[in-house]
From TrEMBL:
GO aspect biological process, one term: photoreactive repair
Transmembrane segments: none
GO MF terms, alphabetically ordered: deoxyribodipyrimidine photo-lyase activity; DNA binding
Cofactor(s) needed by this chain: FAD
Protein name, as recorded: Deoxyribodipyrimidine photo-lyase
Matching SUPFAM superfamilies: Cryptochrome/photolyase FAD-binding domain
Lineage: Eukaryota, Metazoa, Spiralia, Lophotrochozoa, Platyhelminthes
Length: 111
């Protein structure tokens, strides 16, 4: 997924970009596929519940959305760019505020 400029990490603080770069190749344990993440098949019951609420009701509490996005980063072996792309794809597909600044703001914790 090609990210629009406003979602790319270029606006992040230099320390945050450097941290993401340094840890992009870290081994993820556990690591989940995008399908496992989308269908809430992780070992984290809170995260799974938040994902299922978004799928079923189209919403997720703001604090949970930040946790949700952070865990996607933690579990995505392909690195931070792919984690952000997956979070955006899921947010836009399932959330009522998908493609809205509020939804993107909640996911910016990845950057």
């Amino acid at each position: 997924m090609k990210l629009p400029i406003f979602l790319k990490p270029i606006g992040a603080h230099s320390w945050a970009k450097e941290t993401l770069r340094l840890h992009a190749k870290d081994v993820r344990n556990p690591a989940y596929s995008s399908k496992q993440i989308e269908f809430a098949q992780t070992g984290d019951h809170l995260w799974n519940s938040a994902q299922l609420q978004m799928v079923r009701e189209g919403k997720m509490h703001g604090f949970l959305r930040m946790y949700w996005a952070k865990k996607i980063l933690e579990w995505t072996a392909e690195g931070p760019e792919e984690a952000l792309a997956l979070a955006i794809r899921l947010n836009d597909k399932y959330s009522l505020d998908g493609r809205d600044p509020n939804g993107y703001t909640g996911m910016r914790v990845i950057k």
